[in-house]
User: What shape does this take?
Amino acid sequence: MVYVMYLGDTSPSSFVRRGLGSELGARRAASHLFPTRAARRMNADKSSTAFELSVWPDPTIIASVRRFVAELCGRVLADGDITARVVVATHELLDNAVRYATRDASRIRVELHHLDRDVGVVIATKNRIDEDRGRELRRRLDEMRASSDRGAYYRALLRRAAEGVEGAGLGLGRVHAEAGLDVSGRFDDDSVLIRAEGRFVPTRGPALR
Assistant: This one.
């Protein structure tokens, strides 16, 4: 099932959720934002759930999105740990995208896939950024990839933040360390696509329903 949501188009405090039930509608929605292999596989995979959001630069909307994500994951996941990971990662990635977007709407897509005994999670955001922010983001991502210990990396970020270092990167650090997702970036002219993904074994109950 695919959910497509548009936030802030006419009223920043309201959102519309539209379920696309037809196979054609699901295929179009899955490829609209980020045409990845996972999205294409999802078209034929009835045990997968995804949603897309388009959010105008308004940080106050993030709490509403977080509540929606928690409710949706509560319905389709039977695992509190994986739900918490998805909620944390979605919140932090969307917060970064909205906070640093230079113009236009920020976009986010979340996919949940049943993979044998695991649950696959893919979260991607896309937004426009200026040159300085792009350079800083590349540096943060390179530093993250070079770290072999997620916990130690995040503790180092906390120390930087405590020392007053501006732009310590705590948001992406939480996605990497607390949510346990691998984070990567793709830069294209004045925009960036941040992708976080991982696979987790449910601790109780079926992975997806």
User: Anything to note?
Assistant: The first strand starts at residue 2 and ends at 7.
